[in-house]
Write a structure and sequence with these properties.
The complex is a heterotrimer of chains A (307), B (444) and C (313). Helices cover 69% and strands 1% of the residues of chain A. Chain A has 307 residues and is an all-alpha fold. Chain A has a two-stranded antiparallel sheet with strand order 1-2. In chain A, a hairpin with a 7-residue loop joins strand 1 and strand 2 (62-63). Chain A is flat. The two termini of chain A are 22 Å apart. Chain B is α+β, with helices and mostly antiparallel strands and 444 residues long. In chain B, helix 2 (61-77) runs antiparallel to helix 13. Chain B is globular. Chain C has a domain at 103-270 and 286-309: MetI-like (MetI-like fold). Chain C is flat and about 70 Å long. The two termini of chain C are 40 Å apart. Classes of the chains: A mainly alpha (307), B alpha+beta (444), C mainly alpha (313). The interface between A and C is large, with 128 and 142 residues.
Chain lengths: 307, 444, 313
């Protein structure tokens, strides 16, 4: 730790950075560049190419130009999938992040049994993709399931939470909020990275808890909030597993949980229209990249970096 | 504050794109060079002339276990041929199979299913088995025909199933309702009886589970009326009137409480045999494939009975048929067609194979093999075999192999039926939508 | 690459306390703050009660799975209750030996894949992240955008070209397609995660080290990595859990039963078209959860060993 002590001693001495770190960057990025060239690039480029073809998976692709892209805009289920996905993303991502941040703040420090709480709260995220979990959802959210039994106790008539087209998507959003484990963990890690010296300084200045939170915790946590926002957004647009499990892969009832990726998967692997599926994927990429770019632009106004 | 992604970097953009494209091209070249279409490592090698073939199938652990025993037996009888197993569950199977075909690694021998057979056959993925000399003389001609497309034999039925009504005599008794005479009952009788059972059996027990999620029931009704779901030329052969009638039955059943409400119907449908009305002892009737009798009986904890679907003597002819449980198919690009054919031959015709797998891949299509295992069957399977034997003379013909794109049928059927159940579509509207969507899927 | 001035009120000024604080970075100080007042005690109690109630809701699925693993298969569907009316301990024994290999075979395979992936992600993603967070080089923003783009395409359209690629490399049915990409920092999630954490480390630290003659290698290893321990822990834990549970790519790339991993093995208990062994499935699902749960339970304490664990008095 000697280095860090030295660093501390010389803290605050700003120096002019060298013009560029090209060589060092080449070294540090070598694995990443190799990965890009060897692993990532080909599937990316190939799927772009395939999006301009009629490709059944079972036979060689045929170039058909932009037909796949124009076809999307005449496909009613494509629009249904878009609607479902956008609704899901814009409702569940903010809710999930809020839940994750709230729990992370509660579980940050100063309590007995923290490890157990954190682990318990992370558990649903562990179970998410298990085959067995489909049966559980039926028993919890079914017409005669746990939730409706509780409601009946209070004299409320329940519904089929995952089997009724009007409620299935809402249930999935609640389920998603419930698996806030991953962003919670990242928030926890982020909270722990805020140097205590800042709080000490603030205390000396007589700042209260609320002011410390608003003045230190929140601004210093913004890079992590930003990270979670960007990644959860990217992830939510590609949501697949939960709808797949709950609807048995159909996106049902009546396409009410037809997530974009689920529809794309059906097209690629059940209808053998991988060309169309690839076009849908690239359309999704444009949408998500656009939103991410907006996110990065907007981040100028609210994300605080210490560097 | 530095924001990374949004800053423009005009000078480097082009260089980067060039680099990216170059990398892609490099990968493509590497790909073209190495794509031999064969299994990696030790394919067909081995100094002693050992040949290796890969056999892919879907199923659950019991099937994997017996299939491994069958492979061991084959290897024992055929020194010099090694069979590599490649198995997973139904859903994963088709994703994996399509991907490996795309990658040029088609398994040498695979199990196929009628909704997928045409997709694989017409694109040249699987071979014409009649050219490979697989022995089919012990298999009835109409059963062999279920694997033929345009006169070529792309798959041989492992065994047969029938789409039939499974009934729970205990719930009938509990409701004080007589079991129907399945040779004469009509679709109207079915609705009425289901209503009576619901009324007599008490709360939370229903007469029947909704049958509208599976197109096989529609096919039976269509056949009874002299139509057919698919024509041999791959077009739709069912009339809008028949489709509407098919969906109307569900509505009638909901109207007289013969079946659960729409939400519950969706839930029971998604719950598989174990979570079905019959499996959980909450209903008297359900329509299933005959080979599921065992699973249903086990889940319910007591004996269930197989009945003919209603309407077998109501219209022009009988509609029930034998469906190939699955097929064995051989890759068109296999390096070892001879050994692959030998293995398929063994699977179909060796009585020892049948003794191991019994009815796990359907009631064996090979008649002499079927005969040989009848004595060893478990109770439920025994009844299934008897039921199938009774049907033998009544069945008029086998439906043709469903056309390309019929794998989408399940999704379309499920979606439209759900809309009917929730009252979003009338049976007539549903029929129209069904015909246009299926028509689009199969390109007719 | 100009630094926009930061809103002054948002930037707390480090004070003289920092030197002492920094010297204690490695010190292990328990993160409990003694509560002094009775009011605080009551509030703490309420907080615990709330958390416990909430925790039970979160734990319900696990308890249900556990209970189902002790039920005969048929009862799993007929009796939704948490306490089995009929205990069946055979699911564990049956499940362990039901497949072609004993279940520990699949656990070992999964462990190999997971260890390779964790190691790969830790090393390669942190290196890439250092470059993106701290180094100045041409095209940085563009490459960063390319990296993010690579995770915006759904796996379902990527997997087929990937298969073709790995097949041509003769990597199918080995662990290479699962591990090598991690060694090469293809998991953009973690690169971005660490970029954010690295950028949260005050730049004064490495500027000072630079003045003292440290190269990027030493700054990276001796300053950034220790200070970003929570991010490393997060990466390790998530990589472990996500790889352990990942079904699709393992299904596609591993074709022979002796290479199967836990998620594939679990799938072989059930099949939509034939008899399923639900009891053994639940039992083995519980078994396969134990490693991930333990990793999380013990790993999570490293999540909280950052800068902040210092200087509490």
């Amino acid at each position: 730790m000697a280095v860090i002590q030295e660093v501390a001693r010389t803290r605050g001495t700003k120096t002019e950075r060298r013009k560029g770190d090209g060589k060092a960057a080449a070294v540090f990025l070598a694995p990443w560049f190799a990965g890009l060239a060897l692993i990532t690039a080909f599937p990316l480029v190939a799927s772009l190419y395939l999006s301009f073809t009629d490709y059944s998976l079972l036979a060689a692709p045929n170039w058909i130009g932009i037909d796949n892209y124009t076809r999307m805009f005449t496909d009613a289920r494509f629009f249904q999938a878009l609607e479902v996905t956008f609704t899901y993303v814009f409702v569940s991502v903010p809710l999930q992040l809020a839940a994750a941040l709230a729990l992370a703040l509660v579980l940050d420090k100063g309590m007995r049994g923290l490890a157990l709480y954190r682990s318990a709260f992370y558990l649903p995220s562990l179970l998410g993709g298990s085959v067995a979990i489909a049966i559980l959802w039926r028993q919890v959210f079914g017409s005669d399931g746990l939730i409706n039994q509780v409601l009946a106790f209070f004299g409320v008539q329940g519904v089929g939470w995952v089997s009724h087209p009007d409620y299935a998507l809402g249930t999935l959003m609640v389920l998603n909020v419930w698996t806030f484990g991953a962003p919670m963990v990242i928030f926890l890690a982020g909270l722990r990275q805020i140097p205590v010296m800042y709080y000490e300084a603030a205390s000396i200045d007589g700042a209260g808890k609320v002011r410390q939170f608003l003045g230190i915790t929140l601004p210093l946590l913004t890079p992590i909030v930003f990270f979670n926002l960007v990644l959860q957004l990217i992830g939510a647009f590609q949501s697949f597993t939960q709808a797949y499990i709950v609807s048995g892969g159909t996106g049902g009832p009546v396409d009410s949980t037809l997530f974009y990726t689920l529809y794309l998967y059906q097209k690629g692997f059940a209808s053998y229209e991988m060309g169309y599926a690839s076009a849908m994927a690239w359309f999704l990429l444009l949408v998500v990249a656009g939103m991410t770019a907006v996110n990065f632009l907007a981040s100028k106004f609210w994300v605080f970096y210490d560097d | 504050m530095r924001v990374t992604i949004t800053r423009r970097a005009p000078r480097t953009t082009r260089t980067a794109l060039v680099a990216l494209t170059a990398a892609g091209a490099l990968a493509l070249t590497a790909c073209a060079g190495g794509d031999s279409g064969a299994m990696p490592e030790s394919d067909g090698e081995g100094g002693d002339g050992n040949v290796e073939i890969r056999f892919a199938w879907w199923g659950s652990d019991t099937r994997h276990e017996t299939t491994q025993k069958i492979i061991d037996l084959f290897e024992e009888k055929n020194p010099g041929i090694t069979v590599v197993p490649d198995f997973t569950d139904w859903d994963g199977y088709w994703d994996k199979l399509a991907t490996s075909v795309a990658g040029g690694d088609t398994p040498d021998v695979m199990t196929q299913e009628e909704r997928y057979l045409s997709d694989y056959a017409t694109r040249g993925v699987i071979a014409d088995l009649s050219e490979l000399g697989v022995e089919t003389s012990e298999i009835p001609e109409d059963v062999v025909a279920t694997g033929e497309i345009d006169g070529k034999l792309y798959g041989i039925a492992t065994g047969i199933n029938a789409y039939a009504l499974v009934a729970d005599p205990e719930i009938f008794a509990q409701a004080g309702v007589e079991m129907p005479d399945d040779e004469t009952w009509t679709w109207e009788d079915y609705v009425e009886i289901a209503g009576q059972v619901s009324a007599g059996a008490g709360d939370g027990v229903w007469g029947a589970q909704d049958y509208g999620f599976n197109e096989a029931g529609l096919n039976v009704l269509a056949r009874q009326k002299g139509e057919t779901l698919y024509n041999p030329d791959g077009t739709l052969g069912v009339s809008a009137e028949t489709v509407a009638q098919f969906f109307q039955v569900s509505l009638d059943l909901m109207a007289n409480d013969g079946q659960p409400d729409a939400s519950r119907s969706v839930e029971f449908q998604n719950a598989g045999p174990e979570g079905s009305l019959l499996g959980t002892n909450t209903g008297a009737m359900g329509v299933w494939w005959s080979n599921q009798l065992g699973a249903l009986s086990e889940a319910s904890g007591h004996e269930l009975e197989l009945l003919r679907l209603p309407g077998e003597s109501q219209y022009e002819r009988t509609g029930m048929y034998f469906k190939p449980a699955m097929y064995y198919s051989v890759s068109a690009t296999t390096e070892h067609p001879e050994e692959s054919a030998k293995f398929v031959d063994f699977l179909l015709n060796d009585p020892e194979v049948a003794a191991l797998q019994l009815t796990d891949r359907g009631l064996p299509s090979n008649l002499s093999v079927r005969e040989s295992i009848l004595g060893d069957l478990a109770d439920a399977d025994q009844r299934m075999a008897d039921f199938m034997a009774d049907l033998e003379d009544e069945i008029v013909d086998s439906p043709p192999v469903p056309p390309n794109g019929s794998a989408e049928m399940t999704d379309i059927m499920t979606r439209i039926n759900t809309e009917v159940l929730f009252g979003d579509l009338t049976p007539e509207e549903a029929a129209e939508q069904f015909l246009s969507e299926v028509g689009a899927a199969i390109g007719s | 690459m100009t630094d926009t001035p930061v809103r002054p009120e948002a930037r707390p000024q480090p004070t003289s306390g920092s030197r002492q604080a920094l010297s204690e970075i490695a010190a292990e100080i328990p993160d409990t703050t003694p509560r002094r007042r009775v009011g605080a005690r009551v509030r703490g109690l309420l907080k615990h009660l709330g958390l416990i109630a909430f925790g039970l809701v979160m734990l319900y699925p696990l308890l249900w799975m556990l209970s189902s693993s002790f039920k005969p298969t048929a009862l799993i569907f007929r009796e939704p209750g948490l306490v089995p009316t009929e205990w069946d301990f055979s699911n564990y024994g049956d499940g362990w030996s039901a497949l072609l290999h004993p279940f520990h075979h699949y656990l070992i395979n999964s462990a190999l894949v997971v260890l390779g992936s964790v190691l790969g992600n830790l090393v390669s993603c942190s290196m890439a992240a250092y470059a993106f967070a701290r180094l100045k080089f041409r095209g940085r923003n563009l490459w960063f955008a390319v990296m993010l783009m690579s995770i915006m395409l759904p796996i379902h359209v990527i997997i087929v070209p990937q298969y073709i690629l790995f097949s041509s490399l003769e990597w199918i049915n080995t662990f290479l397609p699962l591990i090598v990409p991690k060694l090469l920092a293809t998991d953009a999630f973690f690169v971005f995660l660490m970029v954010q954490f690295f950028r949260g480390i005050p730049r004064e630290f490495d500027e000072a080290a630079r003045l003292d003659g440290c190269g990027h290698g030493r700054i990276f290893v001796q300053i950034m990595l220790p200070l970003a321990l929570p991010a490393l822990a997060t990466t390790a834990i998530f990589t472990f859990i996500w790889t352990w549970n990942d079904f699709f790519s393992q299904l596609i790339f591993l074709t022979r039963p002796d290479m199967y991993t836990v998620p594939i093995a679990l799938r072989t208990f059930v099949d939509a078209t034939s008899n399923s062994s639900w009891g053994p499935l639940f039992a083995m699902s519980i078994v396969s959860l134990i490693p991930v749960f333990l990793v999380f339970l013990f790993g999570q304490k490293y999540l909280v060993k950052g800068i902040a664990t210092t200087g509490i008095k």
